[in-house]
């Protein structure tokens, strides 16, 4: 199986390194094209992949083609590739925010080809990603399974209804940036308290990692995140003082509004 990438930036780099590192395909079976030729060359050299001269060459030489360009350029890229896609019929994978399966099919001129929409996240870079997957009517169970195998190699996957993609993007595609912001804010608080930033960042990140594991592991016993908050808040103690201050500043509503803003922007990008 040859896997091609159109766009060789942040996400393509994470996926290519993950799938070659996990042995889904050897680097020699990966074909890359990017208008930024240096980006494609660096990534190809890292994993032993081949740089194609055009996106069309990627399509003609690949069984699976991952479209890893920004949503704003994807429609034009697809329109240019429609002829080659119709002839070669690879499994097309789009990781672009906002662009629906129906829009992808339309940009391909209505071609009846297998298309799988995926929303990965940046944590794929360290094999800890979380990707949503949804196939169009032309994608067989085997096509979708192939794509799931690729993204499982860089973390986990979940098959969801396409209508939930915008929401998923908020809580798993974009949310790493929210969490990074939270860790940075915790560390700034520690700096204010007199601790060096690098040490504080390491401590805060470890606390977030452990807390995420608590949520996942205790959920199996029916314990919710709110129950866990109560577990930490000693009556008259330090944590409840911090929680009250943060909620007065609008912490939870700010997060809910952030999630809604992602959902709205995702729908805007989809036109
Ligand atoms: N970053 C993230 O955390 C996530 C991103 N995504 C999605 O992944 C996609 C890629 O994002 P990301 O990797 O961050 O973006 P990057 O900008 O890092 O990578 C995109 C690459 O595509 C290149 N490019 C632009 N136009 C073309 C073209 N016509 N043909 C080939 N290559 C082209 C860009 O070059 P140049 O810079 O010169 O324009 C760039 O090198 C987006 O659609 C985004 O929605 C999904 C989930 C998470
Ligand atoms: O910010 C973005 O649009 C992309 C999609 C999800 C994460 N990054």
TrEMBL record:
The keyword Protein transport does not apply. Keywords: Amino-acid biosynthesis, Cytoplasm, NADP, Oxidoreductase, Proline biosynthesis. It comes from the Bacteria. Its EC number is 1.5.1.2. One of its GO terms (molecular function) is pyrroline-5-carboxylate reductase activity. Pathway: Amino-acid biosynthesis; L-proline biosynthesis; L-proline from L-glutamate 5-semialdehyde: step 1/1. Residues 162-269 form the Pyrroline-5-carboxylate reductase dimerisation domain. It is found in: Cytoplasm. Residues 2-98 form the Pyrroline-5-carboxylate reductase catalytic N-terminal domain. PROSITE patterns: P5CR. Its main location: cytoplasm. Pfam families: F420_oxidored, P5CR_dimer. Transmembrane segments: none annotated. It catalyses: L-proline + NAD(+) = (S)-1-pyrroline-5-carboxylate + NADH + 2 H(+); L-proline + NADP(+) = (S)-1-pyrroline-5-carboxylate + NADPH + 2 H(+). PANTHER family: PYRROLINE-5-CARBOXYLATE REDUCTASE, PYRROLINE-5-CARBOXYLATE REDUCTASE 3. NCBIfam families: proC. Catalyzes the reduction of 1-pyrroline-5-carboxylate (PCA) to L-proline. Belongs to the pyrroline-5-carboxylate reductase family. This is Pyrroline-5-carboxylate reductase. It comes from Georgenia wutianyii.
